[in-house]
Amino acid sequence: MSDTVHITALAMLGIGLFAALYIVLRCVMALWLEQHRLAGRLQYRQRQGLAGMLESKLERFDKLHRHLSDLLESMQAPFRPLSFVGFSLTTGAVGLSTGALLFQSVKGTLLPGGIGMLLPYTLIRAALLQRQLQTRIDFLPAVELFYQCYLVTGERNIRLAMQRTIEERRLPSQMQAAFDQLYRNLSVRGDDEASLRVFSAALGHVWGEYFVNLLRVALSEGHPVSDSLRELLTDMRRARRASEQERNKLLEIRIANFTPMLFLLLFIGINAHYNPNGTYRYYLLDPMGRDLVLNALVLIFASFLMGIWLSRKKM
After folding, report:
1. Alpha-carbon span 297 to 283, nearest angstrom
2. Strands, E, within the chain: which ranges?
3. For residue 39, pLDDT beyond 50
4. Half-sphere exposure of 132 toward its Cβ, with a 13 Å CA cutoff?
5. DSSP 8-state assignment for residue 275
6. Nearest-angstrom CA–CA distance, 161 and 224
């Protein structure tokens, strides 16, 4: 009985530590976003010292820097890619230390370090995916409102139609934030292509890319796009039923992401119930048992990443 209580306490401690790390990371990132959301939107930050040098080094990796910049801006995160990379390296160092302490092997040290380094990116990506799912639901009424405002303003100025759409305050909350960010970037950024790329990343689906392409043509060439917008709305209305089916598939993928963890806990729990002494020796004292648990955690994290990738492909 005492061994069962001991195993149960250790299992609860491990689950609690993992949950605490997850909650702490979410809270730290949320607090960081909230404190700098308003002050960091248009604030100029001078590059100087070590931070400026590291930022210049990171910009040499053009694709990585652009991807992180678009990802963070689409989430309306106020910090730079350099800060995000530094935070990821810090969580990776925590993972390395934890792995070295628990598993005491090269593999047991490197794998938790890799998971810790990828965890902030995974959380940001998962949060963006959740926002994209919501914007996909609200995208059709948002485009309908923009089309009405575009016709009212005379089909001549996309920025004026965008301003009118925002001032109506009839967009759903997520779409209101996305359109507001796009209009703000188009007005003050001076780089229409980058602004449209960030808006497309915030939407994250095929209809959003079509809409962005229409905006790109209207901004660069000045041609009216009312006919194209009307065709886009017609196609979106016809595809609404198929979109419902796709959302069900996305829900199935997201549910499947959490089933490996449930099966792992169920399997270990059954073993601990029927053979507490053997479970304690094999999963906690035996290096091969700890290695098995480590492999299972790595595969679960990989399946979660695969679920995010499949959800992105489905959109």
Report:
1. 13
2. none
3. no
4. 29
5. -
6. 12
| Structure tokens given for 285 | 């004292």
User: Higher pLDDT residue, 195 or 312?
Assistant: 195
Which of the four pLDDT bands, split at 50, 70 and 90, describes residue 276? confident
pLDDT reported for residue 147: 92
Query: Residue 17: phi, psi to the nearest 5?
Result: -65, -45
| CA neighbor of 108 nearest in space, from 291, 282, 292 | 291
The token pair that represents 52 in the structure block: 């400026």
16: CB partners within 8 A, 6+ apart: none
Q: What is the DSSP letter of 284?
A: I
Half-sphere exposure of 299 (CA within 13 A, CB side): 11
Element spanning 111, H or E? helix 106-152
Most confident option among 102-111, 236-245, 255-264: 102-111
Residue type, 62: D
For residue 38, name the pLDDT band (cuts at 50, 70, 90): very low
Q: Are 312 and 71 spatial neighbours (Cβ–Cβ below 8 Å)?
A: no
Residue 155 phi/psi, 5-degree rounding, is: 60, 30
Tens digits of residue pLDDT in 141-183? 899 999 999 998 887 788 888 999 998 888 888 888 889 989 9
Q: Where are the alpha helices (DSSP H) in 153-225?
A: 158-168, 173-188, 192-203, 206-221
